[in-house]
Structure formats: structure tokens, C-alpha cells
Amino acid sequence: MVKENAQTETVRVRKAPKLIPFMAVGTTFGALLGVGAYFVVPESARTDANILGVLIVFLGAIGFMSGTLMALVFDWVSRARSQELEATKLKG
Known about the structure:
The protein has 92 residues and is of the alpha+beta class. It has one domain. The chain is 57% helix and 15% strand. It is built from two helices and two strands. The chain has helices at 19-40, 51-80; strands spanning 7-13, 83-89. The chain has a two-stranded antiparallel ribbon with strand order 1-2. Helix 1 (19-40) packs antiparallel against helix 2. The longest helix has 30 residues, at 51-80. It is rod-shaped, with a radius of gyration of 24 Å.
């Protein structure tokens, strides 16, 4: 039953991914990959520079960018799969 003061509109419905969790997981994965890469390098080949920090920051940034890119791709796919539905907006 539709009331007299109701308006019908066409809306798009989709499941959009949240960006922050993808960015956080990508950064964490990259940082853990940096720690793993540090321990794979033999101790005799390591220099006096703090290569651990460099690896964590560099691979963390790559993970951040990868997570963001993955979220944007999922967002693009969700826009392509969105559905148009009729919605009734009630006043009052």
C-alpha cells in the first residue's frame, strides 16, 4: 500500500568494499614480508645500515598500494554488478 505523499525513485544497490581494511591488511602483509626478507638474507651479507627498517617501510608501502589497488578493483566490479531497484521514499 503506497501512501499519497510517497515518491518512487530508481536507485542502484551494490556491495561496496571498505578501503581502510584493504589498506591495513596490505600494509601489514608488506611489513611482515619485509621482516621475513630480512631474516632470509645471510648475516654475513648484511650491512651496518638498518636494512630492516628500510625493508619494512618499502615493502609496507608496496603492500599499502597493492591493497588500495585491490579494493579499487573490487569496487569497480561491484559497480558493474550493481542492480537498479525501485525505492519508495516516504515523507514524514
